Amino acid sequence: MSQNSKIRFTKMHGAGNDYIYVDSTLFNIADPSAAAIKWSDRHKGIGADGLVLIGKPDATDGNSGSADFTMRIFNADGSEARMCGNASRCIGKYVYEKGLTKKTEIRLQTLSGIKLLKLDVTDGHVRSVTVDMGEPCIANPELFAPADGLPEGTFVSMGNPHYVIFTDDVDSVTELGPALERHASFPERCNIELARRDEGKAVIRTRVWERGSGITMACGTGACATAVAAVLTGRAGRQSSIVMDGGTLDIEWREEDNHVYLTGPAEFCFDGETPPPTLPKREGDDEGRGT
User: Can you tell me the distance from the alpha carbon of 21 to that of 168, in angstroms, rounded to the nearest whole number?
Assistant: First the structure.
C-alpha cells in the first residue's frame, strides 16, 4: 500500500451516474463509508453518487478466486451497495485503459456474485461495455413484503431491490422516492423507479431514486429492473432502451438463459488527489496518552 499522505482517485460516470474510483491495491481506505460521505459531497468534497473500490480477488477465497477484479461500492450516505451496473461498466474501462488487463472479457466479483463484462474496444479505447447482470428475482421476502399504503408497482431484484411504478408523471419521483425508499414493504430499503413507455416504441423514460444516494442521473440495475418490469406488465418486449436523466442504456432480457444484459457507455471525468478522510474518534481514545 502507498504511504503517500494523499490518495489518488479517478472520477468516472456511466450515463451521468458518477462515482469516485480508487485502486485499493495501491491505497488503503481504512473507513470507506466515511470516505464516501465526505468525498461525495458536491459542495465540500469531490462530488459523486458514491465511492467505488477496485481490488484484486483473494486467491484463498473460494468465492472470488475465479474473478479478475473485485468491486466494493459505497453510496453517498456511506451505506454499502451490493451491485451497480454503471459502476461495473466504468471498472471495465478503467482496468483496460489504465493497463491493468488486456482482457476484453472480465470477471468482476461483487457482493451479488461474479459479473461478466464484455468490452467493445476500438483503437485501444473502450467504447461501451455489456454486463451480464444475471437473472432477475421477482420474489424475495427478505427484500419485499407488501404492506399497506404501497402504490401499485413491480418489485424486481437485480442483486439489489427495485420497485418500478409506471406512470405518466415520472417527475414525481422526487416526492415519492424518499417516502417509498423507507416504506415498510422494504426491510432493507429500496431503489424506486418511475417509468413511462413511449407508445409504439421500445423506449421507456425512467427516473430513479437510489437508496442511499437520492436522485441520480442513471442507475444500471434500475434500468434492468425497469426493462424486466415492462416485460412482466406487457409494456415492452425483451429488448428496450431505458432513457434516464443522464443518457440511454440498452437492456436485453434473453429468453434462452433468463439473464439480463446491460449495455452502455463509460467515461472518464478527471484524475485527482485527496487527503484521506478524518476518522471519527472512537470511544475510549485518550488523546493525552503516549504511544
Answer: 36
Q: What does the alpha-carbon distance between residue 205 and residue 197 come to, in Å, rounded to a whole number?
A: 6
Encode pLDDT of 264-276 as tens digits: 999 999 999 999 8
CA distance 204 to 196: 6
Helix (H) or strand (E) holding 26: none
Terminal Cα distance for the chain, rounded? 23
How do 267-274 and 214-216 pair as beta strands? unpaired
Compute the C-alpha angle 148/151/156, nearest 5°. Answer: 100
Nearest CA-CA partner of 198 in 135, 248, 252: 248
- As a dihedral over the C-alpha atoms of residue 142, residue 80, residue 54, residue 90, rounded to 10 degrees, the angle is 80
Instruction: Flag whether the pTM goes above 0.85.
Output: yes
User: Which residue numbers are catalytic?
Assistant: 84, 219
